[in-house]
């Protein structure tokens, strides 16, 4: 009997990788990739056994269709002002459809009290899932290595610099490929129900150390420039980031600057059965983004 797994946010950094890795798993697994736009999900159609389904929060029928005959869900919600309401809507749909297991992409430190705003948002969703009666697993990753591609490549290519307000605080950055590997193992094997996994890379690094690695990998000088919080927020808002989001990100940076994001775990090795990617390996694999 086959198992149908729905991945919401399937075109995002982690979602896309989860769909890709699920499509390569041996066994009778059907992968349903939930996307906001079918056009954006075109590349996922090339993967074996992947079905694309459009999910529009303004169209309840689309959500009902997406969850029909689904056994398990990898739940990713967008970083949006109404992300909690979106997540609760998806959890309600999953419960109505008889979903057996939800794996939620959360964040490292979500359980901390009082924590930071980003963590509190994730924890509220986690608690709602806990009260749903469905089996669940929470994945709580550190900051993604891929963020260096999404947010820093322009200044790195043009100036040989990237900016932030993290000082010399160390962070246990993790590759999205490793987050997905843990997620796929949780979705396709038993014994993970009711657990929360903190997921990190193998080392904690400051942005100064990341800049040094970038320089070594690319063969060009790349520097990290530390800036005050106010300048960091201005940089975000100047690029179109809403105030509420910029404030949450600057709060995260302050935690990182204080050295509170530097713990490493062996989750990838224990759950996925292999070592996580190092920052050097990540930069080598994506070298073209920085030169």
TrEMBL record:
SUPFAM superfamilies named among the record's database cross-references: NAD(P)-binding Rossmann-fold domains
Database matches in Gene3D superfamilies: NAD(P)-binding Rossmann-like Domain, UDP-galactose 4-epimerase, domain 1
Superkingdom, taxonomy of origin: Bacteria
Domain spans labelled NmrA-like: 2-258
One Pfam family this sequence matches: NmrA
Protein name: FMN-dependent NADH-azoreductase
The species this protein was found in: Pontibacter korlensis
